[in-house]
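FIELD: query
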Amino acid sequence: MKKSRFTESQIMAILKQHEAGISIPELLSGPLINWATENLITMLFIQPGMPTQNAYIERFNRTGRHEWLDLHQFESVEHAQLLATQWLWKYNNERPNTSIGGVTPRWLLEAA
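FIELD: result
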């Protein structure tokens, strides 16, 4: 079975369309479902109108958009991955999180 893969140019085109205000889910729903099916991955969706079923990831996605995605223009997939990795490390190790008492996730993990 041939596995689907997005090329760098396809990913960059998707990111540019996102910057133009086009919703990524509308662009990726078909290819993503095909990829998941080909790779034997079961897609689980929240119920329509029930975003609270996925509140933690929705909050994380919003934070990622405001603190990372909206601030950078990517030159390549590798550049986007590098900036994402740097942001995620800072998010987990340096950025206080108010929902866990104003400490970093790293501090909370080490204190456990």
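FIELD: remark
Residues 77-93 form the longest helix (17 residues).
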